[in-house]
Amino acid sequence: MNKNIYSHIYNDYSARIQSGQLQAGKKIPSESQLAAAYSTSRETVRKALQMLSENGYIHKIKGKGSFVLDTQRLNFPVSGLISFKEVADQLGRSIRTIVYENSLVPCSSSVSQRLLIRENEPVWKVVRAREIEGEKIILDKDYFLPSVVPSIPAAAAEDSIYEYLEGKLHLRISYAKKEISVEEVTSEDRLLLDLHDYQHIVVVRNYVHLVDTQLFQYTESRHRLDKFQFVDFARRAQMEGNPL
Predict the structure, then answer these.
(1) Cα–Cα–Cα angle for 163, 96, 111, nearest 5°?
(2) What are 15-52's pLDDT values in tens digits?
(3) pLDDT given for residue 98 in this prediction
(4) pLDDT per residue over 169-187, tens digit each?
(5) Distance CA 125, CA 185 (A)
(6) Of 81, 158, 178, 243, which is least packed with CB atoms within 10 Å of its CB?
(7) How far apart are CA 200 and CA 98, in angstroms?
(8) 242 Cβ partners below 8 Å, 6+ apart?
(9) What's the pLDDT at 52?
(10) What's the pLDDT score for residue 139?
């Protein structure tokens, strides 16, 4: 019976947090208050709170209580080279890609400098918004050298360009240099994304290389500030003969 009660408490509060009914930073009732509300023991409540904590819904602060964590932010890896479709498959959320542009265009001055080519040389340009849970919160602007990527089918732009590059063109993509900054929102951002009142945006710039080290793609990915956290895993190297 107790198992059913603490599962009920867990399911009740996890649903409230996921729906946004309980917002990040809000303090939830104490163990004694929850025990009274659910007609159960504090031990049963404690088990439910522990489950909520272990699954990333709340943070327990000794002497202060339990507080709701921000579960709406999406984890994007800083290291590694992974496509949006691969990340989206891990999110388990409703997503949609909106293609605004997919064409061969003269290269602008700024993009030519990043791709190390002459200004006005042709590049394949793809502009897409990523809609997650009904909100357009990422703007991806991709530029490819036509000598490597002569064209991009509409179906690939809507689904996964990397699946097309690797599966159809058989390109061997090796590594990318990444730059992350926070910048002021542009008029294009305002037009193509759902930004509400945000004045700044997180910009991730990728310089992507093939296994022969050739730079063939430059990507500018613009993320709404409140929806993402950029994560990485780092291990400190242990120096031989130098114990901690």
Answers:
(1) 60
(2) 888 888 888 788 999 999 999 999 999 999 999 998 88
(3) 96
(4) 999 999 889 898 989 999 9
(5) 21
(6) 243
(7) 22
(8) none
(9) 87
(10) 96
Contact 216, 177 (CB under 8 A): no
Distance in angstroms (rounded) separating the CA atoms of residues 133 and 92: 10
Residue 174, SS3 per DSSP: strand
Among residues 80, 73, 92, 95, the alpha carbon closest in space to that of 20 is found at 73
Side-chain-facing half-sphere of 209: CA atoms under 13 Å = 12
CA distances from 106 to 103, 112, 126, 192, 216 (A): 10, 9, 13, 22, 16
What are the distances in angstroms from CA 138 to CA 184, 185, 208, 238?
15, 12, 19, 38
What whole-number distance in Å separates Cα of residue 106 and Cα of residue 125?
A: 9
100, two tokens: 């605004």
Q: Which residues pair with 208 in a beta bridge?
A: 176, 217
Q: Tokens 């709404």 sit at which residue?
A: 224
Count the neighbouring beta carbons within 10 Å of the beta carbon of residue 93. 9
Query: From residue 234, how far is each of 8, 148, 179, 237 by CA, in Å?
Result: 37, 34, 18, 9
* Joined tokens for residue 93: 């959320």
Confidence category of residue 243, pLDDT binned at 50, 70, 90: very low
Report the chain's mean pLDDT, rounded to a whole number.
Answer: 85
Look up tokens 């502009």; give the residue. Answer: 127
From residue 114, give the alpha-carbon distance in Å to each of 111, 144, 216.
5, 11, 10
